[in-house]
Structure formats: C-alpha cells, structure tokens
Amino acid sequence: MDTAFVIATIGRAFTAGTPLLLATLGEIIAERAGVMNLGIEGMMALGAVAGFGVSLESGSPWLGMLAAALAGISLSAIHAFVTIGMRAGQIVSGIALTMFGLGLSALIGKGYIGRPLQTPLHSITIPGLADLPFIGDILFRRDPIFYFAIIIAALIWIILYKTRWGIAIRSVGENPLAAETMGVDVAWVRVWCVLFGGALSGIAGGYLSIVYNPSWIEGMTAGRGWIVIALVIFSFWNPLRAVVAAFLFGGIDVMQFSLQSLGISPNLLRMFPYVATIVALLITSSSITRRHISAPEALGEPYQPR
Amino acid sequence: MFGFSVRIERCQPASTTLSIVIILSAMTIGLFSAAALFVFKGFSPLTIVSKILTGAFGSRFAWMETIAKAVPLGLVGIGLAVAFRGKFWNIGAEGQILLGAVAASGIALFAAPHLPDKAVLPMMLTAGFAAGAIWGVIPALLRTRFGVNEVVSTLMMNYVAAELVQYLVYGPWKGASQMGFPYSDEFVSSAVLPTFYGTRVAWPMLVIVIVAAFVTWFLITCTRWGFETRVIGENPEAARYAGISHARVTIILMIISGGLAGLAGVGEVSCIHQHLTTSAAISSGYGNTGIIVAMLGRLHPIGVLPAAIFLGGLLVGGDVLQTSFGMPFASVNLFTAVILLLLITGDVFLDHRFRIRRDCPASSTAVIAPSDSTCGGKMRN
User: Fold this and answer.
1) Under CATH, what is the fold of the domain A3-292?
2) Could you tell me which of B110, B112, B125 has the C-alpha nearest to residue B173?
3) Is the CB of residue A89 less than 8 Å away from at least one CB of chain B?
C-alpha cells in the first residue's frame, strides 16, 4: 500500500465521518437534556433534499447548508412540540418523525433525481499546515463543514462542562425536578436542545447531498441516522469521544469497499457497528462503569411539573 | 409576552368514547393533512385521498391486496401491543420478521426435500416463530440481566438481521437458478402456503392472525402473566413491591412479540415471494408500521385487527399513488407518520386537562408554566 492510497482512504473516512459526527453531536445535546430523538434519519433525509434543492436553484452551497439546517430545525420542532409541549412518548414520536422525513424528502426530491450539483463546496487549504507531509493532505485540505464539525464538537464540550448553560442542560437531563428547583426552565432548555440537535442533523443531511455525494438519491441517508443513535452511546454522550467514534465508523464505511476486494463480505462488516454498539451498551450499563459513563438519568422521560 | 400561559395538568383518565374519537380524528385529519402536502406536486388533497381509499378498499381485488398486507401488520401489531403493554419498547419487529423469514427459508431450502410434504409448512412456521422469539428474547435478557436499554438494542438488532439476510441472498444462499438476482432458489411447492384462489392472501396466515389476536387477548386478560404484564406497564414500582419478576414477565412477552413477528416473516417468504429475497423486499417497513398498528389499536389485541386493515389499506394506497401518479412509494410514510403524530398528540387529552391562566403583570411567560408558584411564570432564585 503506497502513501497516496493511505492518504486517500483516511481522507475518505473523514468525509464519511463528518455527517455522522454532526448528527451525533446534535443528538448528544438533545439526549443530555433528556430528550431522545429517534427522528435523525428523517431530519437528515429532509436536510439532504432541502440542501440539495436550494443549492441547485440558488447556485450557492452555503444557502443550501442553511436550508438543510432549517429543514432539520422544523422537523425537530415537531418533536419538541409533541414530546415536550404535549408530553407524548419520545420513542414513538421520533419514529414517526423519521417516517415523515423520509416520506417528505422522497416527495420533494422526486424532481431532483439524476441532476448533478454544479456548485460543490470547495475545500479549504490551511496555509502552512497544509504543506506538512502526510497529515497536511489528510487534515488541512478539507471541506469547510469538516472544520465546522470539529469546532462545534469542541464548543459543545466547553458549553457542557465549563459553562452555566452546560450545568443547566445536564441537570435537566439528569434530574429535571432538581433543575427546576434551582430555577432552570426545564421545558425551554429541552426545546432549545432539541432544535439545536435538529439543526445539526439537517446540516449532516445537507453534507451528504452537497459534499459527500453531490446529488439527490431517494433514501440516500441509508440508515446513517440509526448509526448516529449508536454513536451517541458509543461515545458515552461525550462530544470529544464522538469525534473519535464518528471518524472510526466513517472508516468502517470506507473499509467495506476495500475489504470487499479481499473477499470479505461487506454485509458481515456492516454488522460490526451495530454489534459493537450493543457491546458498548452492555459495558455502559454494567454496574461498575455506570457511575461515570451511563446515559442521562432522565433520558426519555416526559417531564411533569408538579 | 402573550399575557397568558397554558398549563397542562394530569387528571382522571377520560372515557373510551373520547379515546375512539381521538383515533378516528387522527385518522381523518392525518389522511387529509398528509394529502395536502401533495398540493406542491399539483394534486388536490381530495383526489389523493379518494385514490388511496378506492385503491385500498374499492374492489374485491383491492380488499384482497389490503388484507394480504394486513396479515403481517396484524401479527406484528399484536406482538408489539403485548410488548408495549409491559413497557418494553420493542422497536425490533423488523429484525424479528427477517429472522423468521430466514429460519423458514432455511427449512424450505434445505430440509423440505427430506421431510414429508405435510410436515414442511408446520416446520417452517415453528422455526419462524422460534427464530423471531430468540431475536426478541436477546434484548429482553440484555435488559433484565444487564439493564441494557431495549430501544437501542432492538434497533441495532434490526440492522444486524438485515445485513444477515443480505449476506445470505448475495452469498451462500444465492440461488443458482435466479440469473444473478439476489434471491435464494424458489421454494418447493410443499413449502408454499396455500392462498385464496387468485389472491395473495394465504388463508392459513389469516387464521393464524385471528387466532393469535384472541389467544393473546385471553393471555393478557385472564392469566397471571397477563395481570403481571399490565401491572408492570402501569406501575413498575408497584410491580416490584408485589414481587413480580420483571425478567420472567418480559421474557415471556418478548417470546410472544418476537415470535408473532417471526410468523409474519414466514408468511412473507412462503406466500408472497416464495424465495428468500433482500431484506427491504421481505419487509417494507412492517416493523415500524406495526408500531402504528399497535398504537391505533390501543394496545388491544382485538383492536389491532381493524388498525392493521386500515394501515394495510394505506400501504396498498401508496402503491396506487406510485402507479397512477408516479409518486415515490416512500411518500406513503407521510400518511402513517402524520396519523401517528396526531394520535400521540391527541392522547394527551385523555388524561390531561389544559388550563389557560392570565399572567401576573411582573412575571415572564412560559408556554408550559414550570411550577405551581403564584402566577405560572418562571421561578427564579
């Protein structure tokens, strides 16, 4: 294996991992506030078609990304209304959201099938660093959304662990009653976190149709939304671990094509992330590790103010 | 900000009439509001709804197609109703269907030639039930032994099952006679379920669905296990104090839930396809649609049956939208999704009441007032 091949493979792993990372970060924020949103697949699909459509019509991939974010926000607003406003079950609502997003994106995207996107996002070359041998090509000549995702990951980590907002978000997810007693508005914190998660999922979808594969294909999210649910657990609800986990899973995504040529069934390889998630869940759920890395205590529970 | 705030409070559960009103309004409003989205494609909502309804229920043929889809939906829905009653969020029906299909195909492809003809179908049904049940019991064990969240584990196992099917039909089980298509060889005739003449409705499956509905109804209402399931579902704390074994109850309910989904998988491969095919073709989202069936049927095994016919009709209507208007089949998801969202939103009215109160002049506003302090505004330290 020559260096160019290795660089190309790692680069593709980063590209495949970027949408996973964005959506995972969004879901981490929502789940940290106690709201599980299983609608990621739907939000990504709608984000992908909105992003593609707007990029195509306006000629600006940036407007497309904005549209993708708005698409994600509007779908997640439904989830916020149904689960936080009306206190319906988060699981069923999330699944309905996924079906809605997949259905609506298929309907909207019908006219876009087979049309190429002429205006992709150009990659950014970071002066100086880009000329470093090996890592220069891998890390410093990438598309802007890749950097955006990394920055967002760091920001979320800082917000969660170093600011008052973070304390509010985490306390709402762990013990909403106590949070409320401390003067935190549980419902609004949850709403903002869900909307923020929706925006990131939408951008993740937009990334798929604008950067990763500049075109629209029905069902192009291909189950990534569910991988994200897995990644949240895999990274133990920590945004920095999410960076590692997302690019690792991106690598698996890329590897399946390389390993296929060696005669290893891609289907068996594709099982790996799912099985690994169950194992990760097993580890996080066992009593020894539970205190440090378990799920937010109030995750999935509608909050009933007294 | 608005001068008033809305409080949602718990109250006594409302009547069954309201419950039925909510179901029917969710169905009607859902149908029309989802159809309204087709305006952007230049169709009037009325045309869309009438096309779906006639496509699903307009003729004998339409009815038969609807029932052919209602059968797997009914089996999955009954199983999910049981699981949800016991507060076990089985999102894994899709995988359990696929495992049932794989097990039945295994029998049909490899054991059928060595078995007496009469034994093949019963063997396939048993194997399918068992495989679905095993796939369902794994997350039940993970949950009760190790505290693993079942939503995620069942979700993940769907994908493991789907990849397993893909592996089989593209790999070792790929049929030599299928000209490169990802199908297994055709089943021998003893492994094919008999149908009503000229339809795709396998009558044994229809019998199984109806029997399953009544048997689970009996189990839920008249047995100790059923009682324990309901206690766990309504008040897990009370169940623990009463000494009810959460593990035992959950495992039994997942044997039923997974097993019934497995049976649905048997019906799909043995009657509709008559070979093992790709995962997406075996179950076009029956696992998720089954969730709606269970919810619309109010988690009642008998109530699930009409819900399954309605959703089956909707899926057939989706086919019609595809063939007559060229709409993508996935757009049928809009209807199911909107109906489900309306239903769970409407259900809040069952045991909550809404109170609108004026804000005190000084307080800030929250849509849902977080506390019962003096004037429904934000409480600050």
Assistant:
1) ABC transporter involved in vitamin B12 uptake, BtuC (1.10.3470)
2) B110
3) yes
